[in-house]
Amino acid sequence: MTYTTESPAKDAINRASTGLFAFGYQKIAKKAFFAMKPDYAHASMIDFCRQAARVRPLMWMLREMLDYTDPILESTVMGVPFLNPFGLTAGLDKDCDLPVVLDAAGFGFETIGSTTSRPCAGNPRPWFHRLPQYRSMVVHAGLANDGSEKVIRRAEKAWTQCETMRVSVSLARTNDRLCGDLDEGIEDYCTSMRRAVGRTDMIEINVSCPNTMAGEPFTDDPANLDLLFDALDEIDRSQPVLVKLPLNKSWKEMSALLDVLAAHDVQAVSLSNLQKDRTGLDVPESWKGGLSGGPCRDENDRLIAQVYKEYGDRFIISGIGGVFTPEDAYRKIRNGASLIQFVSSLMYLGPQNIAVLKRGLAELLRRDGFSSVTEAVGVDVDM
Fold it and tell me: What CA–CA distance (Å, rounded) separates 230 from 228?
């Protein structure tokens, strides 16, 4: 592979294409999407990407134009090699419709789902509300998905066919009226875990979705989390496991959860899920759900640093929340994150922002004398 940084022609094309995509998105596509209701815009975007993925020349062109590559961005995390640390977080590509497009655009990885053992219709609509003043969305989808039997089959196909992107699948508890007691919830996770074994690069266990009728029993009580992972540990798997944790916990509560996970076969934590605290934000009370993007950033950055300080020798950290600029990503890395996930910036800034993030991060790393992402992880945390 010839890196973008090794070819003046590729570098010039990437710079020009990124600018062209940014202009087109802001002046045309974004205006069209924002003229639609958010739920319809989301469905239209998924359908467009699904259709575009079938046009191979278009995917080739997308890769040639947008995929910025640089050896300084490469790392091996949990035994998995990544061309760059940037991934799409779970919640957007619920049914595994986007891997071909994301792979061509240059994502380092994607987290598909969250998916559940039974097909799930999700919460009553609307699922989304825009908060452009905060670069955020109110999200209340409630884990709508086609069920893990179908979704994991698609994820496996993506895993075997993606050229460079790594594939993770996020597993959650089904959100429907068949939800029962704690044992039923544990078996729900185990069913999906058995289906996922050996079929992706990574598995994420989402125990912190804030929009379900069963609530969050596995983060409300560390003993429940312990029971869940007692059961999951019985399932033999080769993939590294990440656990997606909530944002709005006191450090005492969070450390109790982390102590439980440290005793189990868990390699990493995804920090973190949607923001529940609306203090100081102008958000209508009738808009149900958690907040993505900007409102997550500062609290998430502090949480990453605290977890890295106390558990950095035990867990890899995947940082999620409020990543719009290379500086946002770099701050999370310096606070202790080895991987970076985002979704809101795709909507507010456009799909070309993956190239902006990668180029900008590479420049920041070189500016500060680092030769890799790994060297910068946690450097701002006083151990």
Answer: 5
